[in-house]
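Tokens help. Consider this.
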Amino acid sequence: MAADQRQVTLLALLDMSSALDCADHDLLLQRLQIDFGLSNAPLEWIRSFLSDRTYQLVYGGDLSHTYLLQYGVPQGSVLGPLLYVL
């Protein structure tokens, strides 16, 4: 509405997609255990959710080697953004 009235307007955007790639698994699990009191089965479930994830690149129709993900939470999952915020 302000732009329609020729008033100064600002738009600030924040792209969090690459921030999700930076979450340290060990630090996250430690925080869940110490700060939030998770233990036993729930903590192991989240550890399993984060561990043994791999990625592979395709460029010009050629596949790269498979690499192990050491950081980040799964994007597109319901739990990924929640784990990042925690």
Q: What stands out?
A: The helical segments are 25-34, 40-50, 79-85. The chain has one domain: 19-85. DSSP finds three helices and four strands in the chain. The mean pLDDT is 88.
